[in-house]
Every structure is written in C-alpha cells, then in structure tokens.
Amino acid sequence: MASLQCVHPSSYIFTPYQQQNFMKFIFCFCFIVATVLSLDGNRILSIIIFKKLPSIIFHAFAVCLVLAFSGSFIALMIENETKIVRQICWYISVVSIAMVGSILAYSMSAPFYNWVSQVMQEGE
Q1: DSSP state letter for 3
Q2: Would you state the torsion angle of the CA atoms of residues 74, 77, 79, 83, taken in this order, to the nearest 10 degrees?
Q3: Which domain of life is it from (predicted)?
Q4: Half-sphere CA count of 80, side-chain side, radius 13 A
Q5: pLDDT tens by residue, the chain, 124 residues
C-alpha cells in the first residue's frame, strides 16, 4: 500500500530555499527601514509620508515592521527540527510585510484622495 503523506499547501508555493531567501529580503528591508526611521531621532517617514494622517497609522506601520523583522529573524535562526514553528514565523513575517506595504500605499495615496475630494467640492 502506498503511504499517505500530508504535504502542507505552502510547500507548493515556495521551496525552503525560496522561503529562506524571502526571509532574508524581509529581514534586510525591515532593518533598512528601521535605520531610516531612527536617523538623528527624527521621524523622517512620519514627516514626509505620514503627515496629515492620524498617528495611529504610523504606529501600526512601526508595529507591523517590527513583527515582520522578528518573524523573519526567528524563521532564519530556528533549527530544522521545529518546522511548524518556523512555518508559523514565516506566515507572521509575510502577513506583516504585506500589512507594511498596504499601510505605506494607503499613506502615500491618502493625500491624493484628499486633494481630489477638495477639488471636487470646489467645483460644485
């Protein structure tokens, strides 16, 4: 009889080598963004990108950045014997970096939408 083997669906998407490379990318990206955020104690991204938005959006960005960084770091440093924990850290990191991207896209497009709505109201 053939043995039944349970294969996780995520193994179809990324090979372990690709997962490791993606974790390295997330790790480096988060490190660079965190370094830019802490230059001279000024909140550069907060001043340039997140202006005119509630501070909660910047805080959500920072928290998701920390989650992506720590998830990728743990996934890279964990032993091979604990594959389930590594996979959970992989999911946390990928979801967090997707949130970082979506918050960044929202914060960059929000002023444009505000400008369009002001122009539309002035035209009426």
Answers
A1: P
A2: 40
A3: Eukaryota
A4: 3
A5: 454 454 555 545 677 778 788 888 888 888 888 777 765 555 666 667 777 778 888 888 888 988 988 888 888 888 677 888 888 888 899 999 999 999 988 888 877 766 656 666 666 6
Residue 49 backbone dihedrals phi, psi, to 5 degrees: -95, -40
- Note whether 61 and 104 are within 8 A (CB): yes
Lookup: tokens for 75: 């996934």
Q: Is 43 helix (H, G, I), strand (E, B) or coil?
A: coil
User: How far is CA 37 from each of CA 14, 28, 31, 66, rounded to the nearest angstrom?
Assistant: 31, 14, 10, 12
Cα–Cα distance measured from residue 113 to residue 44, given in angstroms and rounded to the nearest whole number: 22
